[in-house]
TrEMBL record:
SUPFAM superfamilies membership: Acetyl-CoA synthetase-like
Signal peptide limits: none
Taxonomy, superkingdom: Bacteria
InterPro entries: AMP-dep_synth/lig_dom, ANL_N_sf, Rv3268
Protein name (database record): TIGR03089 family protein
Lineage: Bacteria, Bacillati, Actinomycetota, Actinomycetes, Micromonosporales
Domain AMP-dependent synthetase/ligase intervals: 12-87
Amino acid sequence: METTIPQVLAATVRRDPASPLLTFYDDVSGDRTELSAATLDNWVSKTANLLVDGLGLGSGDTAAVALPAHWQTAAILLGVWSAGVTAEISDPESADVLFTTPGREVTTKASDRYATGLLPFAMPLRELPDGFGDYVLEVRQFGDHFPGQPVASNDVALNDRTHGDVLLAAHARAAELGIAAGGRVLVDATTRFDPVDWLLAPLAAGASIVLCANLDPAKVTGRVASEKVTQVVA
């Protein structure tokens, strides 16, 4: 069994690089973004390269991720973990780098700060807040292959939990929710905030994800059919 989050992602990509791994919907904006395992891995690699080659971060450093459940958030979190950096989603004050959305009040000492509008087609922001880089523009400058960083199961991954602890929680959550290997799980992004729920439990179980923001209940039945969903986690 994989003991770190990067190992889980790598196993997922090896198993089926071409099939949809994460499909994102926003029922307000009308956005639908589908990422295969290989495509998501490219975004993850670019993010890890941004952190390691661009910012010089690694083991012992912390990235504050003040973002809702979204495909870009998945890429950022998985990139953070691939880089050997700790993701902090509760207390960003002491972080070394910040990822957030414009207008969100975040207190942090991080000198490196990135904003994203989480816009359809990964469009850049029209107006960038002072002191911030645009994540989707900056990350595209980096390579889509990441050579890897040494990451151990006892390294801190999420807040104060290690990779081993987080994966144990992800497997337990998958079992509790009945998520099975090969399944396709529809997740309501408005009710699931912990990435263990909306991202890592399905990945650890070997399932793919249909992540829905601002979910319109009237669209669930049709989406289950069109996306071949095997389970709804609302």
